[in-house]
Amino acid sequence: MTGRIGRLTEIDFDRVPGVLGRIVRERAGDYAGADAAAGPARARALRFHAALTGADLALIAEVKRASPSEGAIAPLNPAQAAQAYQAGGAAAISVLTEPRHFDGNREALRAVVGSVTVPVLRKDFVVHPAMLREAADWGASAALLMVSVLGEAVGEYLPLAHHLGLDALVEVHDEAELDLALAAGAEIIGVNNRDLTTLHIDLSVSPRLIRRARDAGFAGVLVAESGYRTPADLASVRGLADAVLVGTSLAGSGDLARAARELMAR
Ligand SMILES: O=C(O)c1ccccc1NCC(=O)[C@H](O)[C@H](O)COP(=O)(O)O
Known about the structure:
Layout: H1 18-30, H2 47-51, E1 58-63, E2 66-67, E3 71-72, H3 78-87, E4 92-96, H4 99-102, H5 106-113, E5 120-123, H6 129-137, E6 142-146, H7 147-150, H8 154-163, E7 167-172, H9 175-184, E8 188-192, H10 205-215, E9 221-225, E10 243-246, H11 248-251, H12 256-264
Parallel strand pairs: 1-4, 1-10, 4-5, 5-6, 6-7, 7-8, 8-9, 9-10
Antiparallel strand pairs: 2-3
Helix pairs in contact: 3-5, 3-12, 8-9
């Protein structure tokens, strides 16, 4: 299939509140006028999906040099950080590519893809189809789609990601967003414990929404995201989630392989 896969609904980013709203409006400005054509279909390897299934609780370790919550975290070399995470048992690597608040960029993603054998997630605030095309061009296996940002349009971005050969981590933070992700046909759902409008973290959000997804008959992959610092923090999602996504506590640890190993130890 070539060209556009249908015309995408225009999204009103002014409706997104707080810190998240500011970031997505900046990203929308960055991509204003970018080419929205999907281009040819690419084969789906489903590597990210496969990496998160089968294990007791898989780790997606994040290359995160800065954030709105913390400011500067650590001046990581992305390739070295990713190699350390892989050595520490990570099943996949998440790389932030947002430049203003997370000190991310394309080079970081490409360097990570070239230095590890595990699949790589492009973690950014996807507001334009070109961002998915870039993710595929740069070698990512998956991209993040946030229901809080895309709203019902997540149902259009999801097939576009798949058309480009990408898995999609569809992120939610409350019941309404989860119901939208399920209706859109998400195969991998991430539940973020962090309220991205206020930056408040509540570790009870993931177990609550993961139970709701399973009760609704969801048979796909469920990922608990944000705020995990100690093995004890993970107790509430062991046996429920397929994977956890961890950034700050690992990135700021000084010994990334050891921190990954110790966090996941039972
Ligand atoms: O981390 C932030 O401060 C943040 C602020 C605004 C939007 C997104 C933000 N983080 C994105 C993430 O979801 C996390 O990087 C990821 O889940 C890892 O979280 P953590 O382990 O708490 O760093």
